[in-house]
Amino acid sequence: MRPARVRLAPAAGRIGLLGGSFNPAHAGHRHVSLEALKRLRLDRVWWLVSPQNPLKAEDGMAPLAEREAAAAALARHPRIAVSSLETELGTRYTVDTVRALKRRFPAVDFVWLLGADNLRQIPRWRSWQQLFREVPIAVFARAPYHASAASGMAAVRFARVRLRPERSALLAGGKPPLWCYLPVRRHPASATAIRSLRSSMQTSMAPAPESPGSPDLMAAVRAVLDEMKALDVVEIDMRGKTAVCDDMVIASGGSQRHVQSIAERLVEALKPMLPAVPPVEGAGQGDWVLVDGGDVIVHLFRPEVRDFYRLEKMWGSLPQDRA
């Protein structure tokens, strides 16, 4: 199938740029693109298939034409276009690609689309701080929710120009530096997992375990927090607010070690209930630890760190006198 080409001369519009190796393209890319179209109010999303990611090895990299064609076959949406435009532009690094696109399409309002995993490693990118100053950036936090990314070097450096999720539609047309952190529900596909599956060629006939419902998970979380004497526990019903999870629990520990101990006990309690070990972020430092129980996400803080991030206020869970 011949790839769908990006129109070379859009008069204007709001366009999201999703760059990557697409080795291979998978449904997770499409999921993020559809979220971006809806939440950022974009006209189109362009998938920019990179000839070679400077941070990835060439071993195992499929030919560019093959990756582009596979991406186009997967996209299957009139507002998602696929292109290896970087080959034509002669650019290798993201910041150079963005600059070239802005010169070529001066009337277009671009937004760079980024996964939370890439937000963590963006300080390794060429001229990454300049990239923030060139184009608004939307970070999609696919579970496991990357608490460390949300408080990492890039997030801290540009904390003053971070938009709240409900204002994400202001990114396109906004003056950079400007960015937003957008939680989205986990999609099971990942390029790494797909490549691993292809290489192993092993299958199992065992039926997949049935995932527990949110009430069962919440009961287990409550029991652990009570057992471990967690402080200031707040439960937030996230249904209708976000696609990240059904329920969010926020609690404090009296010290870094207390926070870490609560997280360790939560993992022990939730592990038998889930298909895999619950992902954990931030356990090494113990200031802010996130335990991803799928439909239930638990944030554990030291009190002063919790006061700084104020997740309760972000999600409107506190009474007005405390918000």
Q: CATH class of the largest domain, please?
A: Alpha Beta
Distance between the termini: 54 Å
Low-confidence stretches: 188-211, 317-323
CATH fold assignment of the largest domain: Rossmann fold
Task: Compute the number of strand runs.
Answer: 12
> What overall form do the CA principal axes indicate?
elongated
Number of domains: 2
The total count of helices amounts to: 13
CATH architecture of the largest domain: 3-Layer(aba) Sandwich
User: What's the average pLDDT?
Assistant: 82
CATH superfamily of the largest domain: HUPs
Strand order of the largest sheet: 3-2-1-4-5-7-6
The radius of gyration computed from the alpha-carbon positions, rounded to a whole number of angstroms, is: 21 Å
Overall helicity = 25-40%
Structural class: alpha/beta
Would you write up a description of this structure?
- It is a single chain.
- This protein is α/β, with parallel strands linked by helices.
- It has two domains: 13-184, HUPs (Rossmann fold, 3-Layer(aba) Sandwich); 214-314, 2-Layer Sandwich (Beta Polymerase, domain 2), CATH 3.30.460.
- Helices cover 35% and strands 20% of the residues.
- It has 13 helices and twelve strands.
- The protein has a seven-stranded parallel sheet. A five-stranded mixed sheet has the order 8-9-12-11-10.
- Helix 4 (94-104) runs parallel beside helix 6.
